[in-house]
Amino acid sequence: MIRVVLADDQALVRAGFRVLLETEDGFEVCGEAADGAQALALAREHRPDVVVMDIRMPGVDGLTATREITGDPDLAEVKVLVLTTFDVDEYVFQALRSGASGFLLKDTDPVELLRALRVVAAGEALLAPTVTRRLISEFVGRPENRRIDAGAVRQITEREREVLALVAGGLSNDEIAAQLVISTATARTHVSRIMTKLGARDRAQLVVLAYESGLVTPRGSR
């Protein structure tokens, strides 16, 4: 059973998500929040598997709440799945840097939302490649975002660069293995080593660090 907290300031949005989840086997909605403060309180009270987090909410916004949740050692098992629209891209990028496990657009099909919740609850990152590339190309090039130690970057091997580029493209370990004609176990080992070298806490942060470090560049970027 995947336990979910829904955080959105629009009651209609929360109601729609609740109906969707409660009619699907394997999901339980254990709370609803209209702002970030409520989302944080519910996360601490119920320890859900996933918090579906809107960003623009009154009072404490979703970005702040995401940082609080992902920064609390007692909530280490709680994943955050951010909901957004294209006009809040910068906030989504910051949310990923803060530890959110992924993001979805608000007009996502119901089937995709259910799949996303399962992926995130299982400990994987959910990164829509097309949206990720737009985020990265617009915001990673800013000088203030270059925070990666040069020594750590030099430790990355050529094979690891290949793997990292595929991770940044949104590929799973199975897909990386097929692309590079290696075993899934080997792909998983490469990803784990890269995460250790760059100090990434999870796959979502690894994608952000990949672009911030310059190890991966967006297609079509200048």
UniProtKB/TrEMBL annotation:
Q: What is this protein called?
A: Regulatory protein
Q: Which lineage ranks, top first, belong to the organism behind this chain?
A: Bacteria, Bacillati, Actinomycetota, Actinomycetes, Pseudonocardiales
Q: Which UniProt keywords apply?
A: DNA-binding, Phosphoprotein, Transcription, Transcription regulation
- PROSITE patterns xrefs: HTH_LUXR_2, RESPONSE_REGULATORY
A GO biological process held by the record: regulation of DNA-templated transcription
Keyword Transcription among record annotations: yes
Q: Among its keywords, does the record have RNA-binding?
A: no
Q: Name one Pfam family in it.
A: Response_reg
Q: Which organism is it from?
A: Amycolatopsis methanolica 239
> What SUPFAM superfamilies does this protein map onto?
C-terminal effector domain of the bipartite response regulators, CheY-like
Q: Name one GO molecular function term.
A: DNA binding
Which stretches make up the Response regulatory domain? Answer: 3-121
Q: This protein's superkingdom? A: Bacteria
Q: Which residues form the HTH luxR-type domain?
A: 149-214
Looking up PANTHER family in the UniProt record yields:
TRANSCRIPTIONAL REGULATORY PROTEIN NARL-RELATED, TWO-COMPONENT RESPONSE REGULATOR
- The chain residues annotated with the modification 4-aspartylphosphate are D54
**Which sequence ranges form a coiled-coil region, renumbered to this chain?**
none
Q: Write down the InterPro entries for this protein, in alphabetical order.
A: CheY-like_superfamily, NreC/VraR/RcsB-like_REC, Sig_transdc_resp-reg_C-effctor, Sig_transdc_resp-reg_receiver, Tscrpt_reg_LuxR_C, WalR-like
